[in-house]
Design brief:
Glutaredoxin, 5-stranded mixed sheet, 4-stranded antiparallel sheet, 26 helices, 24 strands, globular
Length: about 700
């Protein structure tokens, strides 16, 4: 018989609906039961694409004897960390504070008052891997709670004080100068892997936000090393197995330092952030390789991660039929059966497919970096030498081979897909599509961004409040700071891509709610949860950018942009307070503040306001709009004024009011620090004024 989780919409919770464990979801029923029965809470947190979450479920939660112990001594609560990042953050802070590390699955034991007193990550069922067995832990914790309840409660109070202190912001006295960016760059340069790209050693994550900051630093200083760090990383990642060479898109991270063997789950947020990064690199360098990776990644999202009504799904699982990465692996014989002898020979040479394999006897497709070439041309010159064929012919062979092999791969059992639509992650992906639409002039990308935004505003909102998650016709859970901040950013980018006033109006409307609900009126900064959220043991603040940008970082950048658009100096003051508070941390620990560093770069300027006045349907007006989007200049905002009077826009964007047509022609204005350059009707002149 199913347990209570059968009624949940989260695929992760539903995966546990037939466990013999008497699971609850987080809520008043579970918390009341713990209080009334005076039982400790066993809180288990994970997510649907998590490989070790599946392992622990199979080993422990499906085991009848272990489940019996859990049911006898504990109130067992299962949480999807993607739905409830508030709970995940609080109890992850505890696990990291007490063990020095964290991860998922996460197991934390709480008093009935929700205070943690013991925790960890994955536990095997019995002692192994140098870890204590789960059944032994369960019995020990139950015995400890029975015999030392008062002592645990006292210790828990000390822990709560520590957790509360982590939400405090220091006084903001630091000056905001370009020297902070210099220090951040020097710190990142020391950690850079000049052979394989990226930062640090295995396991290696994409660090897309750090690399995006380096692009901005290069624009500011023209330091060649900053651009080199970005280019080496982007090429190596896109050549490695962490990139899906057949289907497009990136896996979560690489288990080695050279990007060969990935952890095979695919996350919406990784692909959103990396798509933006490859787009910006294409703008800076003009290298078509970056554009190809961008387009393949967005095509993957359109094909496999898009809800029929708009919106984007969350993840693809790492496992297929219990084997990690099974769908992505190939043998030479499998490839030959699809392509034939000659095309298979070319394909296997190019993607380093061998009889011995590179992963458990099979092959992860990758472009071997050991060939002595730069990889800019995908090693076609090397391949021509090996095969005696012309590069154009080889390019065509590889193109059709990828199509045929992807079709064959699609016949295999598919990875599980988490089809919940998360507001925050969708905001990130809308930005990627909107920016790509502007730069590449793609109506397909623009339509995707627009439909996703319409979906969220229609389905994931009640009145003026956002909701966190949508699935199976049901939207639920109060949205968090990151949901508001990411959607506001998406709406601002969508406004710049469409110049349709409704998106800017929606961003303005949501920003007012965000400030009211999340801003700390006493100490400054943003809380993770709104002021009318349920009471948890800590109302914490999130400062660090991790796998996704923190809500604080995105909200800070949002306020800086909205301060310019709406003439809201109070927004600028709030953003400056956050930046000044974190200034020294940005310089000393830049790897934890990749997105906040981008907000700092925007604040330091120069910031450009671009106004375009004209008839929206006129080609000359369109040419000015495209000129404003063509070049890499991230610290700009663009606004549009139709030649017919729009009193509402003049009120919303006050600096538009004085902008008029030049001699009756569509006109562009580039302004900075309350002064505008000579208005122009020439797109080339507008581009020069914007980037000079």
């Amino acid at each position: 018989m199913p347990n209570r989780l059968i009624h949940e919409t989260s695929p992760y919770l539903q995966q546990h609906a037939y466990n013999p464990v008497e699971w609850y979801s987080w809520g008043e029923e579970a918390l009341r039961t713990a209080r009334e029965e005076d039982k400790p809470i066993l809180l288990s947190i994970g997510y649907s694409a998590c490989h070790w979450c599946h392992v622990m479920e199979h080993e422990s939660f499906e085991d009848g004897q272990i489940a019996a112990i859990m049911n006898r001594y504990f109130v067992n609560i299962k949480v999807d960390r993607e739905e409830r990042p508030d709970l995940d953050a609080i109890y992850m802070n505890y696990v990291q504070l007490t063990t020095g590390s964290g991860g998922w699955p996460m197991t934390v034991f709480l008093t009935p008052q929700q205070a943690p007193f013991y925790g960890g990550t994955y536990f095997p069922p019995d002692d192994r891997y140098g870890r204590p067995g789960f059944r032994r832990i369960l019995e020990a914790v139950a015995q400890t709670y029975k015999e030392r309840k008062e002592e645990l409660a006292k210790d828990a109070q000390a822990v709560l004080r520590e957790l509360s202190q982590m939400a405090r912001m220091p006084e903001a006295h630091d000056m905001l100068t370009p020297r902070l960016e210099d220090a951040a760059f020097e710190n990142l340069a020391q950690r850079f892997d000049r052979f394989h790209g990226g930062f640090g050693t295995a396991p290696k994550f994409p660090a897309s936000m750090d690399l995006a900051f380096l692009l901005r630093y290069h624009r500011r200083t023209r330091h060649p090393a900053a651009l080199e760090m970005v280019e080496v990383s982007l090429k190596k990642m896109a050549q490695g197995g962490v990139y899906d060479h057949l289907g497009g898109g990136f896996h979560r991270y690489s288990v080695d330092e050279r990007w060969l063997v990935p952890h095979f789950e695919k996350m919406l947020y990784d692909n959103a952030l990396l798509a933006r990064l490859y787009l910006e690199a294409y703008q800076v360098t003009g290298n078509s390789f970056y554009r190809q990776v961008l387009e393949e990644t967005l095509e993957f999202v359109l094909r496999e991660m898009t809800h029929p009504e708009g919106g984007f799904y969350s993840t693809l699982d790492a496992d297929v039929e219990g084997e990690e990465g099974k769908v992505y692996l190939w043998t030479p014989q499998e490839i030959k059966a699809v392509l034939g002898e000659e095309d298979a020979r070319v394909f296997c040479l190019y993607y380093d497919v061998t009889e011995g394999g590179n992963f458990e006897g099979k092959n992860i497709l990758h472009v071997d970096p050991g060939r002595g070439t730069s990889g800019v041309d995908h090693d076609l010159a090397w391949l021509a030498q090996q095969t005696g064929k012309q590069e154009a012919e080889l390019e065509e062979i590889l193109r059709r081979s990828k199509v045929l092999l992807l079709q064959e791969r699609d016949r295999r059992p598919r990875p599980g897909r988490d089809e919940k639509v998360l507001t925050a992650w969708n905001g990130l992906m809308i930005v990627a599509f909107a920016e790509s639409a502007s730069v590449l002039r793609s109506e397909i990308y623009l339509d995707s961004a627009r439909r996703a935004a319409e979906f969220l505003l229609a389905r994931a909102r009640e009145g003026d409040r956002l909701l966190r998650t949508y699935k199976d016709g049901q939207a639920k859970l109060n949205a968090y700071l990151e949901d508001y901040a990411n959607l506001i950013e998406a709406l601002l980018h969508l406004y710049q891509a469409t110049l349709e006033p409704r998106w800017l109006r929606e961003a303005d409307r949501l920003s007012r709610v965000m400030v009211d609900q999340f801003w700390d009126q006493d100490e400054g900064g943003f809380f993770f949860t709104g002021k009318d959220h349920e009471n948890l043991i800590v109302r914490h603040k999130e400062f660090y950018d991790n796998a996704t940008p923190s809500g604080t970082s995105v909200a800070t950048l949002d306020l800086l942009k909205l301060a310019l658009y709406l003439d809201r100096p109070d927004y600028r003051q709030r953003a400056e307070k956050v930046l000044r508070t974190l200034a020294q941390a940005l310089a000393k620990f830049p790897a934890g503040f990749g997105y906040m560093l981008q907000a700092l770069d925007f604040h330091l300027g120069p910031q450009r306001e671009v106004a375009i006045v004209g008839d929206r349907g006129q080609p000359a007006t369109r040419a000015l709009i495209e000129a404003a989007a063509a070049d890499y200049f991230p610290n700009k905002i663009v606004a549009f004024k139709d030649r017919d009077p729009e009193p509402e826009m003049d009120v919303l964007v006050p600096w538009l009011k004085a902008k008029v047509l030049l001699a009756g022609h569509p006109t562009g204005y580039v302004c900075q620090d309350f002064a505008c350059q000579q208005p122009t009707s020439d797109p080339a002149t507008l581009r020069h004024q914007l980037t000079a």
